histidine kinase (Marinobacter nauticus), 493 residues
Amino acid sequence: MKLLSQLRTSSFQLALLYMVVFATSVFLLLAFIYWRTAGFMTAQTDETIEAEIAGLAEQYRGRGVNGLITIIRERVARDPNAKSIYLLTTDDFLKLAGNIETWPGGSRSSDTGWINFTLDSSVGWQGPERLARARIFEVQGGLKLLVGRDVEELTNLKRVIETAINWGMGITLALALLGGFLMSRGTTRRIEVINNTSRRIMNGHLSLRIPTRGTEDDFDQLAENLNQMLDRIVYLMEGIRHVSDSIAHDLRTPLTRLRNQLENTLIAVDNDEAREQVGRAVAEADQLLATFNALLRIARLETRGNSADMKVVSLDELVSDACELYEALAEEKEQSFAQSLEQGVMIEGDRDLLFQMISNLIDNAIKYTPEHGSIQVVVRRDGAGAVFEVQDSGIGIPDDEKGQVFQRFYRVGKSRSLPGNGLGLSLVSAVAEIHQGQILLSDTHEGEDPPGLTVTVRMPAYTGIRKRIKAAPAEQAEETQNDRSSSTETSSA
């Protein structure tokens, strides 16, 4: 599978294109060398034959037919290996001299005078079959003369060159393919490192940075630019978060005082209308305090990371306790509230944080599901994971907004008329991240109206290996106190 993905990479395709261009260039070069080499050797053979013909013609002019016959016989006697081929015949092809007996088949007439034939028994050849090339012309007096050369070695040499070219092309293609694969593999590895790091950063690990090799090449420059961009983004995000957290922290104390004063006023006022107005003011103050407490809680969770007090927790028992707490609220809206809790599903986590996450999701399901709707809470084991799931038949979340609902203060358009501050799912996301969990949003009844919403939280199941990471004592004590004081205030967020 990795090989197939490697072959689909742009770097390998680029290397493959380079290989094709390189192989084509090598092929054209070798073809040119072969053409020039083979052409030169063939021309050299033809020149040798022409030189012998010229010598024989000179002998014929000086000594006549008898002298021509004599010189041919002398040359045959001096050439025991028969590199040169001779045949002199009369007009009716009766042999007068030469080292073959008859004319090669189909060669008694030729437009160019040049023929290629095989030396075998058909021409009276006594040795092994060999390839030959010759020229035919007529001598004055009706005689016919064939002068040629054995070109078996030349033909074998051409075959050797052709074989060498074929092997050379094969080796070139193989090396080019191997080089392209290795080059693209190295490039793909570096790109994969950038992609993997980028994916982890997108999943919330903003402290990660893309590693560099110190070579100052293009990839190092790209990594450095991305790292600088991430540093700037984190700096701006931290600035915004610090401002919002500071505002929430600074305003919580005066709001608490204001709320207490309003409550004292509520006790002291005798007028029913005034008591109603003060009561509404107290409720608004409580809502503001709940919002600020949720903001500070999310900030502490995001800052603390995995330093929560991890203990082995029975997820099904924890969900059962939360369901018992919210069943009465579902009964008030005449909703069907079902539970499917697999026993013995254990996880390692912070009990208070997990309870708040579970409570938030169940509370949201009840809040956004109309009367007579249905809600189902599920706990099950899925392989090495523990799954907590809440299904409802409420208004649901549009697909294009499912990725945005975990942002602070973000509210779906359909739910803006309902109470809430848009921080509940942000808190759920922060708790899930601490417990290495993943959240999936989907429609309960796809294609129907309303579609409902199914929230699935998958966390690693407890395997017997403790992974507790200790928090600073002072911070842990403060967190515990704050968690207990704000758990009920943020559960309806």
